[in-house]
Design goal:
The chain is α/β, with parallel strands linked by helices and about 325 residues long. It has a single domain, classed as 3-Layer(aba) Sandwich (Arginase, Chain A). The protein has ten helices and eight strands. Helix 1 links the parallel strand 1 and strand 2. Helix 5 packs across helix 6 and helix 9 packs parallel to helix 10.
């Protein structure tokens, strides 16, 4: 039995200059890649440095004026505040690389069953603006390009970040061919939420039992209702109890069980899936890195199970 390679794309070769006190945990991306390769979950030769996404890719989803201003650094003070990151040429480059990584990983997932981006999940970016650390919406760009290429027809966004995927919801509002699912904290950011195809809201303090029960009650039914041909998994781990922005109380064990259920549901339906990282703001940051590593360990296990199924091995 030959297991398909677990292919991943990374953007952490582009250094993002941030003030020392800035809350965005930029180091988690490098730390996760290093941990996964050290464990053997990923092999160095299967991790590719992302190029910058072509401007045409960005403009397939985003307003051309927003793309130009975002790349040139022509954002006004209010837009920079809303974004939450100081503009720099490296920010623009890294945001483009994150989009590139998700698109390439999505293409690879359609071949191998599972692939991922060690970045991305920038679900707060709208067509004409950025928000909450998200300059461009990699999920929306990947969907738009894959559909234009005829590779997918009915994509499904499975967003389990603790913050609602408001930008993704708005971009695909009124589109019956794209299902946007968001499980998130009811009282967390954004305060004014957009409407996904299905929004599942949790109260502050929800723990493993509440989150897993909500998933059980909604994800399989949503998958069966939409009958997708591809899944984009925004695997944010900010529901972890150590997360300073999450306001939920999940444990490592609960998050690991979340991954087992998600990958099991997708395997049983024969659905390919691309992983994107999304949120994780734990204190210390190693807690979020470990939680994200669990996602990738289960992705590796899923590939092995898929290979056994393809070979007719129980």
């Amino acid at each position: 039995m030959t297991t398909a390679p677990l292919l991943a794309w990374t953007s952490d070769h582009i250094t993002l200059p941030l003030p020392p006190s800035h809350p965005f945990p930029i180091e988690k991306y490098r730390m996760l890649r290093e941990q996964l390769t050290a464990e053997g979950v990923l092999r160095d030769e299967h991790v590719t440095r992302s190029d910058e996404a072509p401007i045409e890719w960005l403009c397939a989803v985003h307003d051309e004026g927003w793309v130009r201003r975002a790349l040139e650094g022509a954002l006004d003070a209010a837009e920079v505040r809303k974004l939450g990151l100081p503009w720099s040429p490296q920010l623009a480059s890294r945001a483009r690389a994150a989009v590139f990584g998700t698109v390439q990983a999505a293409r690879a997932a359609l071949v191998h069953g599972v692939a991922g981006n060690l970045a991305g999940g920038t679900h707060h970016a709208y067509r004409d603006r950025g928000e909450a650390y998200c300059l461009f919406n990699d999920l929306a760009v990947a969907i738009t390009l894959l559909r234009a290429e005829g590779r997918v027809k009915r994509p499904f966004v499975l967003d389990l970040d603790v913050h609602q995927g408001n930008g993704t919801a708005a971009i695909f509002a009124g589109r019956p061919d794209v299902f946007t699912y968001s499980l998130h904290a009811r009282h967390n950011y954004p305060m004014r939420k957009d409407t996904s195809t299905l929004d599942v809201e949790l109260d502050d303090g929800a723990g493993d039992d509440e989150v897993l029960a909500a998933l059980d009650a909604t994800v399989p039914a949503a998958l069966d209702r939409h009958a997708p041909d591809f899944v984009l998994y925004q695997s944010g781990v900010d529901a972890l109890h150590t997360d300073r922005l999450g306001r939920l109380r999940m444990t490592y064990e609960g998050l690991a069980e979340r991954e087992r259920r998600v990958f099991g549901w997708l395997e049983r339906r024969g659905l390919s899936v691309v992983l994107t990282m999304g949120g994780g703001y734990g204190r210390p940051i190693e807690t979020s890195v470990e939680a994200s590593a669990q996602v990738w360990r289960e992705a590796r296990a899923s590939l092995a199970r898929r290979s056994r199924m393809a070979d007719g091995i129980a």
